[in-house]
Specification:
By secondary structure, this protein is α+β, with helices and mostly antiparallel strands. The protein contains eight helices and twelve strands. It has three domains: 152 residues, 2-Layer Sandwich (Beta-Lactamase); 86 residues, Signal transduction histidine kinase, dimerisation/phosphotransfer (DHp) domain (Helix Hairpins, Orthogonal Bundle); 149 residues, 2-Layer Sandwich (Heat Shock Protein 90). It catalyses: ATP + protein L-histidine = ADP + protein N-phospho-L-histidine.
Length: 464
């Protein structure tokens, strides 16, 4: 099964294309080496033949035919010319001198020729000879040649070695490509098997790692991290659904109870008006909850970046403090604004107002009665910072990451007004503005800091 998938895989087809291309390149290189070597060796042999023929023709020009015959006989007797062949023939193809018995078949009266013939002075049987023929002024024909059997064997060995090397390289490349493809297909199949298991069983499956720390392990690690993230998001969705059902059950149950009671009771103008008012109030709570969810979703989709302008955090924080001053006085809480006189940044003014307002509202609601809430705006080396501090019971350190989830409420906050969406909105606004949220112990109480990054030109950075 794996082998069949290997041969059908795109990786294998690409490997075959690469092997074919590589094989053509290697074959072309060896062909060039073969042609260059043979040409070089043959050219040296041809130059020796041309030089020897020129020497013989000079002797013919000086001493005539008899002198040429004498020189040919001398060459044949000389062992240093043992691999040379000579033939001088007269009219009617009569052999006048030389170590060839007859004029070679197919050889012309002038020009190069290759042939096989028995030569008494050569040990090889019918060696391969290469010669140069010429017609002398008296009409006789002169053939000067050289035994190229060694050259022929040498070129044959080069050709055989080249073919063997090309075949070996192609075989090794094919084996390597099949091995690499099988490994790739095996890893892909492992990912596919895990994916099928996830589709059938759930998100608790993970792609196995081999510990090789290669690119496949990195892909598996990233996919596992993605699955962790998906599982976490699915858990958040389930929690949000459960929390919505829990938070909607109370107002809807109250509304149904009132309406059912009014349905069975006689009409009473004042009582009906009070019932309608209470029902509208409960509906407002439900609608406000859905409005908050819609607003958070809109912010998280970054649909509001078009409203980014240069704003002064101190001015926005001052408006929030002024808005909540009356609420703070009702709880005997002191609400102060501190820090720098001007803190500039780029952002959405309305969203920043909502985020700061939620932080201040939470600080007043969950802080100590008769305590103090301080809003601080300042410039830091990294950018703009706004902090909201109270002196209430604070939030346990192990709950810091969970309070930003939708509808999440601490146990001590269950009986205070709210729906658990305030800090979720703050987190969405911070993410939109590329801000970092820090929760710290104010000893006593809680300190929440929003830190906005600053770009290289000094303006707060807008992160995607």
């Amino acid at each position: 099964m794996l082998l069949a998938k290997t041969f059908r895989s795109t990786t294998f087809r690409l490997a075959l294309i690469a092997i074919g291309t590589f094989g053509l390149i290697v074959s072309a290189i060896f062909a060039y080496v073969y042609w260059s070597t043979v040409s070089y060796v043959r050219s040296r042999s041809d130059r020796a033949i041309v030089t020897e023929q020129a020497s013989l023709r000079e002797v013919f020009a000086r001493s005539g035919r008899d002198g040429l015959i004498a020189l040919i006989d001398q060459r044949i007797a000389d062992k240093s010319f043992a691999d040379h062949v000579y033939m001088l023939s007269g009219p009617g193809a009569v052999v006048l001198a030389g170590n060839l018995k007859q004029w070679p078949d197919g050889a012309t009266a002038a020009g190069w020729t290759e042939f096989r013939a028995a030569v008494p002075t050569l040990a090889a049987q019918d060696p391969l000879l290469r010669g140069l023929a010429a017609t002398l002024p008296d009409g006789s024909r002169l053939l000067v040649g050289h035994d190229i059997s060694d050259l022929d064997g040498f070129t044959a060995r080069i050709r055989a070695a080249g073919i063997a090397v090309v075949v070996l390289i192609l075989a090794l490349a094919a084996v390597a490509s099949i091995g690499v493809t099988r490994r790739t297909v095996a890893r892909i199949e492992s990912i596919n098997a895990t994916s099928r298991a996830i589709m059938l069983a759930g998100l608790d499956q993970r792609i196995p790692l081999r510990g090789s720390h290669d690119e496949w392990d990195r892909v598996a690690e990233n996919l596992n991290l993605m699955l962790d993230r998906i599982e976490s998001l699915m858990g958040d969705v389930k929690q949000v659904s459960d929390n919505i059902a829990h938070d909607l059950r109370t107002p809807l149950t109250r509304m149904r109870g009132r309406l059912e009671k009014a349905y069975h009771a006689p009409r009473d103008g004042e009582g009906d008006a009070a019932l309608i008012g209470d029902t509208i109030a409960d509906l407002d709570i439900v609608l406000a909850m859905f409005a908050s969810l819609t607003r958070i979703s809109e912010i998280e989709t970054r649909a509001r970046r078009g409203a980014f302008r240069t704003v002064n955090l101190v001015e926005i924080a001052g408006e929030v403090v002024e808005l909540y001053d009356a609420a703070a006085e009702r709880d005997s809480t002191r609400l102060d604004l501190a820090g720098d006189a001007e803190v500039l940044m780029t952002g959405d003014r309305d969203l920043l107002f909502d985020a700061i307002a939620n932080l201040v509202d939470n600080a007043i609601k969950h802080g100590r009665a008769g305590g103090r809430v301080t809003v601080t705006c300042c410039n830091s080396a990294d950018g703009a910072v706004i902090a909201v501090a109270d002196d209430g019971p604070g939030i346990p350190a192990d709950q810091h990451d969970r309070v930003f989830k939708r509808f999440y409420r601490l146990e001590q906050s269950r009986y205070t007004p709210g729906n658990g969406l305030g800090l979720s909105l703050v987190a969405a606004v911070a993410s939109l503005h590329g801000a970092k949220i820090e929760l710290r112990d104010n000893a006593p109480g809680l300190l929440v800091r929003l830190c906005f990054a600053r770009s290289a030109n000094g303006a707060p950075e807008r992160r995607a």
